[in-house]
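User: Batch of two.

Assistant: Item 1 of 2:
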Amino acid sequence: MDGIIPQLSRTDKRRLENQCRRAKEGAEKIRYLIILNLAEGRSAADTAKALKVHRSTVYRVAARFREEGPDGLIDHREENGENKLDDEYLSGLWDVVESSPLDHGWKRPTWTREMLVETMAQQTGVRIHVSTMSVALAKIGARRGRPKPIVESPWSKRAKTRRLRELRELLENLPEDEVVVYEDEVDIHLNPKIGLDWMVKGQQKTVLTPGQNKKRYLAGALDATTGELIWVEGDSKNSMLFIQLLWKLHERYADAKKIHVILDNYSIHNTEEVAKSLATDAGQRFQLHFLPPYCPDHNKIERAWQDLHANVTRNHKCSDMLELMKAVRDYLRRRNRKAVRYATAA
């Protein structure tokens, strides 16, 4: 249909294309696409068919463009009445999403958009469409993710806070001739850990597993200052593996007056063999600082192990343990080189 919109110059079209790419709302992007299609000489009917909208929508958008120009394509939601997704509504939605549906009387333990609509309607008196709830969730940055299982610490909140404060003060006031490391162990399985990966539509990737699983174990210590990771390997996760790590730290930090080791309450860290090792002259250089039970987020080496799984063991294709352990060592060495460069630059 000739004259449905004014003729656009190449510069005007390019400007509209840029604004279309920057549009965050789907409806606003559609309005830009309508004008761009009409500007290419397509009819209103063809434009409506291509964009899967009603023909009346094409005419309405074109009329607004004729009257207001590009400003007419910007969201005019204020014309629809009061904005329901105001700060108060979004703040309340944040609190609801953080909680469990069970806390609000629902029998289902995970949220659906429909349940969120009903819950927010009960709390605010404002009812929105399910599609608008999708917009609201995007506004608060909500996402569908996998919850992290945790175990409640048996320590009181006061005792837990006191211990974590002591460790923080240790790091802040550390003498130059002392070092602090975070210690933990990690299992290396020949059977790959299965993790998320990108796949094209209609495809499900496969991961070949060797069948009979084999394991190796690392005991590691992350330098709190430099980020370097020192580790030892073993066929068993026991006190001897932990003691081997202590002696490696003893050699690595030969000039340190005191080596502070922050670690969890795993049983291999507190055995008679460990006590005998710490009672020696060399062992007295070590001071163990146990974290409150079930506080893995406060042991910074945990992140290093997560990165190891993400970069090596998850969905791996190693055929035997020798190949897998070589990949583990290569990754940890590369990681240490980066850590040293970063520490030197800082």
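Item 2 of 2:
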Amino acid sequence: MNFLKINNNANMDLGDSEELFHSLGQYAQKQFGFKRPPTLNLISDQDNHMKPLGKTAYYDPKERAVSIYVDGRHQKDILRSLAHELVHHAQNENGELDIGGYHGEGYAQKNKNLRNMERDAYERGNMCFRDWEDQLKQEKPTIYNERRNYKMSIKDWKNKELNENLNRKWGFSMDLSVLKEEQEITHMCALHVTHKKSGKEGHPVAHSLNENGDISHYTVEFKEVIVENIAIENLNIVEEEMHSHKRDDVKDHDKKKPIVQEEELEEELQEEAKPDFADVDKDGDKEEPVSKASKEKEEDEEGKEEKDLSKVPPQLRKHISKNMKESKLIKTIKRMIREELKNTGKK
């Protein structure tokens, strides 16, 4: 239902706004008590728009008209200006603006009585707008998101609103709060990340998500593995985007890859980063800590004894001495097997 007479002198697209202008006007009438709605003029003025402190809106008591400059302004800001000027309209009907004294530019600093009228407009106008906005979001939780995020046509949107109103009229309305798990949540989501400690690059396939769109942990697919529950502070976000999906949605990924925890990824990193130690006991094992190698060297020197090498394969004899302790012999054989397996893998 149209409440305000709107003169769209700015050729503003009223597709998403006209209903809101009328809704706010009706709500303000109940709050402020004015009898007749004012005329609403939407104005375009590029010179005013270019000024950092240009005009936003004004009220004409004689014409009973609200004029709002709309160039480059958010719809919400325009509506807030309307609420402010509707307070002046109510003041005008009550004869409160019939005050003598200065009425020109800077009147709020030079005329004490008009300054009080301006203070009243800021206080009641802002609170009226806030109360109206909160009420509208509770009554129509989809009115903002669906047309913007899901590009719902005007026809589909009207059908949906009609269906909701009929359901409410006949007592079939539902508490949408019980369906929170099925609602899609709009949020910023990472597309490409690097793990801070390992430097590995990957892309998230799932994440935690609360009702406010906040994420605390990601599950990330890397080249070799999928790592679950990586805290967001342990990742560098390379690329992200705003999108909507249900809380438990999972992106496509390689289901054959092993799934590990972040601790396992860090253990692998530590294993790769182990330094080469000095080969104190001359057994060719540079991954063995110096303290352990020194102990084995002492044990070898204390327990030197002749060994029968006749049963040792010829290819191993050059690596084994007759005085080598049995434990060291086993260790040397294991090391050579590992080296051979590595060489085989490279081939």
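The chain has three domains: 5-139, 192-272, 290-346.
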